[in-house]
Amino acid sequence: MRKEIGMDIASELVDYAGGLNFDGLPTEVIDSAKKVVLDTCGVMIAGSAAPGLETLIDIITDWGGKHESSILIYGDKVPLPHAVLANGTMARAHDFDEVHEKAMIHSAASIVPTCLAIAENDAVRINGKDFISALVSGMDIMARLGLSLERSPLVTGMFISSQIGVFGATVAAGKLLRLDRREMINALGIAYSQAAGTVQASVEGSVMVPIQIGLAARAGILSAILARRGIEGPQDVFQGKFGYFPVYHQNRYDPSIVLRNLGKHFEITNVSIKAFPCCLCSHAAISATLQLAKEERINPQEVDRIRVRVNQGCYNTVCYPLRSKRNPCSSQEGRFSLPYVVAVALVRGHVSLKDFTTEAIQDREVRSLANKITPIVDEAIEQRSGRIIGPAVVELTLKNGRTTSRRVDFMKGHPKNPMTMEDCEKKFRICLPFSARPLGKGKMSALIKAVRELDALNDVSRIKDCLR
């Protein structure tokens, strides 16, 4: 006999998601959702030509199957789970997607493609208000689960963006597919069976960094579909004897954080929309370096050495092992190398998508400067920062002995230094030239307009029509 629902926080999360509707969302939450959607569409476009994507899409199209949802940019229609595997990977491919700094998760890359894929399904017409509600609930639950953890994933090595991503994508998919309470609980239980992910991929600069997100998105849709067809999953998903928190985190979490102000406060307003296409752990250092370069007109040839002070989590992710981080061999390794991106910022005066091509990675001037950069763990920053990624201090010494430094606490895109919708549109257009296939200016203008008017759309598939 099946046990009664209600013994696990999964029950309260499902009740929250099921009861959330657009009319209960504050204006700032709706505005944040629109920015997240446009930002994710842009990074998916840029990610469509990233290393490994063509191979992944070849595999998916070779599988064939029912024509349900589009692989964005490429246009091929494949089964729903296969489409989100490709599209979720695109969204994460350049590490240009949003991140919740304190929870240390990327959520939109798994949830936005999931919602778009379902919106394209002919059997279910999704309007903008329902789309926003599903997006907000999925991202909110992901952030709350991440915030509840006592230990940082940068320390434990758990890639919770994909581990927890399966739950967020499942909630968003289940909400759009109109699962009932029992079905949603089952869907989360099914999702738990597919929760996985490791930071080791980030440390090594592997293409599995973005693919892990694609797998999480696929698991979310698959879980919702299985539950809708009557497949049952475990009920004590998070707190059972062998639930997510005991097994993955040794019960080192605070359940009150998951449930606090549920339905009243929405974590989507606390995400950072990235200004640079690389790991957020380097963004404060990049910002400090760009300030130094601009304000003091630093000539890279005159630099003797640079020290960058960061916290332990950032050091583990983008500074270790130092020898390989100073000498990245691929675009993915470059994105997870603080010495490389700081050197790029000083030499080129920017850090952009074109700085991670195979040719750019091999630039001799940048590599020479990267080998003069020494990151260190600053105990004061470590004690003060706690779970957050910043701040960073860049200390530069010139060959003539002069020293100078800059500290950045809140990089551009942080909730305390946020991007406007206009900033997001500018970033979106920056992504367009990197598409695997040309996209017409008319379509892109129509997409921006559709996102701005998202809450008024009767059919969200209009957005996806612009992306294929």
Structural commentary:
The protein has a four-stranded mixed sheet. The chain has a two-stranded antiparallel ribbon with strand order 1-2. The protein has 25 helices and six strands. The protein has helices at 9-19, 27-47, 53-63, 80-92, 108-119, 128-147, 153-156, 160-163, 165-176, 181-192, 200-204, 208-228, 244-249, 255-259, 283-296, 312-318, 322-326, 331-335, 338-348, 358-361, 364-370, 379-385, 421-431, 441-452, 461-465, and strands at 69-70, 77-78, 303-310, 373-377, 392-398, 403-408. The model is unreliable at 1-5 (pLDDT under 50). β1 and β2 form a beta hairpin. The chain is globular and about 70 Å long. The chain folds into two domains: 9-275 and 420-465, 2-methylcitrate dehydratase PrpD, CATH 1.10.4100.10; 280-408, 2-methylcitrate dehydratase PrpD (60s Ribosomal Protein L30, Chain: A), CATH 3.30.1330. α3 (53-63) packs antiparallel against α4, α4 (80-92) packs antiparallel against α5 and α15 packs parallel to α19 (338-348). It has 468 residues and is of the alpha+beta class.
Task: Spell out the key features of this protein.
two-stranded antiparallel ribbon; 60s Ribosomal Protein L30, Chain: A; 2-methylcitrate dehydratase PrpD; alpha+beta; 25 helices; 2 domains; 468 residues; four-stranded mixed β-sheet
Kindly summarize this structure in a few lines.
52% of the residues lie in helices and 6% in strands. It has 25 helices and 6 strands. The strands form 2 sheets. Strands 4-3-5-6 form a 4-stranded mixed sheet. Strands 1-2 form a two-stranded antiparallel sheet.
